[in-house]
Amino acid sequence: MDPFAQRRELMVRRDIEARGIGDARVLAAMRRVPRERFVPQRYRDGAYEDGALPIGAHQTISQPYVVAWMLDSLELPAEARVLEIGTGSGYGAAVLAEIAAVVVTVERLSELADLAREVLRDLGYTNVVVVVGDGTLGYPDSAPYDGICVTAAAPEIPRTLLSQLAEHGRLVIPVGDRDGQELTVVARDGDRFSRKSVGGVRFVPLIGDQGW
Fold first, then answer.
1. Per-domain residue ranges for the chain?
2. Least confidently predicted of 55-59, 62-66, 93-97
3. What is the pLDDT of residues 124-163, one digit of tens each?
4. CB 51 within 8 A of CB 40
5. Fewer beta carbons under 10 A from the terminal one: N or C of the chain?
6. How far is CA 101 from CA 26, 71, 108, in A?
7. CB atoms within 10 A of CB 115
8. Angle, helices 24-32/64-74, rounded to nearest 10 degrees
9. Side-chain half-sphere exposure of 99, counting CA atoms within 13 A
10. What is the DSSP letter of 40?
11. Tens digits of per-residue pLDDT, 171-190?
C-alpha cells in the first residue's frame, strides 16, 4: 500500500493537468515517480505540495508544475536521448527516465550526485547515468541529444549545449538574471536555432564556464 498514492494523484490533477500540461507521457510519469523519495525525510509530508523544497547544499527540488512544464515543452520523440543539466535530487531525471530511452544528468556537486544516484538505483532506473561535472559544458560523450533540460538559470544560452542538440531537438532553459528569468525553448533545424520564451520563472543560478 503506497501511503502517498492519493497525494500524488491529487498533485497531478490539481497542479499539473488542470494548469494545461497535456502530454500524456508526462502526466503518466508524474503519477509513477515517488517524489517523497527525493526529498529529505523531514520534508516528506510536503512532497506533493506545488512548491520547491530544500534538498541540501543550498539547492532545491523544483515545484512539480515546473518540472512538468519543462518536460512538456521538450516535446520528446519516442526513444529519446535526453541530457539534463542540474541533477539536484534526481527527481527530474526519474520523471525523464519514465519517458525517454536514455537520460544523462550532470550535477556539479558530488554530494548531491551521489544521493541522487543512490535513490535512482534503489527505484530501479537503469536508463539514467549520473555524471559529476560542469553542466554548462554538457556531456559530449553521449551527444547528440533529442532534448536538453537545464534546471538552473543562465545569463545566456550556453553555446556548447546548442552544439550537442540533435537535429529537430529542443532545449529548455531559464534565461535571465539572478532575480528572475524567462523559460526559453530552443529548437534546432540544421544550423538554425529558433528561440521563444514561454513564461517567467525563478531558478538557482547555473554555475560553470558558460554560466555564472
1. 5-201
2. 55-59
3. 999 999 999 999 999 999 999 999 999 999 999 999 999 9
4. no
5. N
6. 14, 14, 23
7. 22
8. 140
9. 28
10. -
11. 999 999 999 999 999 999 99
Q: Answer whether CATH 3.40.50.150 is correct for domain 5-201.
A: yes
Which set of grid coordinates corresponds to residue 203?
531558478
C-alpha cell at 167: 537535429
What is the percent of the chain where pLDDT is above 90?
99
Q: Is the pLDDT of residue 43 over 90?
A: yes
Residue with cell 529548455: 172
Residue 34 has pLDDT above 80, yes or no: yes
Here the contacts of 160-164 (C-beta below 8 Å, separation 24 or greater) are 160/136, 160/210, 161/83, 161/85, 161/136, 161/210, 162/186, 162/188, 162/193, 163/138, 164/83, 164/138, 164/139, 164/140
Residue 194 annotated to the active site = no
Of the candidates 62, 110, 163, 197, the residue annotated as catalytic is: 62
User: pLDDT digits over 116-134, tens only?
Assistant: 999 999 999 999 999 999 9
With beta carbons less than 8 A apart as the criterion, state whether 172 and 148 touch: yes
Contact partners, residue 5, CB within 8 Å, separation at least 6? none
Model confidence at 1: pLDDT above 80: no
145-150/192-201 β-pairing: unpaired
